Structure prediction request, 188 residues.
Amino acid sequence: MPRPGEYVADGTEGITRVEDLPKAKLVERSRNRRRRPCPQSDRSCYRHRTMQRTLHDLGDLVSQRPRDIRLIYWQHYCCKCKSYFNADMLDLAPPKSHYTHGVIALAVRLAVEDGPPYRAASWHLWRDHRVFVPYATIQNWVEAGGKKAEQRVAAEYLAAVDLDGDGDQDPAVSNRGSNSDAYSVESR
Prediction:
């Protein structure tokens, strides 16, 4: 057992193939509900079939192994809309992603703090958090995060400018009018 402050070499250093990394520790999670409301029609819908999704999460540092979440969920069918929908999993991961929100946030933060070498961020994630993320995936997350942030800021600005929802800029926000023009107080 290593003592505090003692250097212990990483047992996975020098491995060049992903297949040679230690096997992941599986954690089972379930999203099993008999009925769910349809997101389009709000009608209560029965389960149709079971589905499975594997998510890569931050690893277990005690056992020095990565951690995968095997999520078993139900797909529901709406008879009114004639459409299928899945149980809500947005608290764990974005749609169609193989990584949890924690992994994505940590990878983007590491890449932004360390600068452009995404390969270093990928190695840091494996060495310190036992999750393997290809450096090209980290690059895609960083670039997409910048575009999404620009879109979000622009949307928030436009929403703040158009307070009453009529499509024009409100005098309270613009410098063209005075604040007394924005609101009228009715006396009773």
About this structure: The longest strand covers residues 44-60. The CA atoms of residues 59 and 66 lie 4 Å apart. Confidence is low (pLDDT under 50) at residues 170-188.
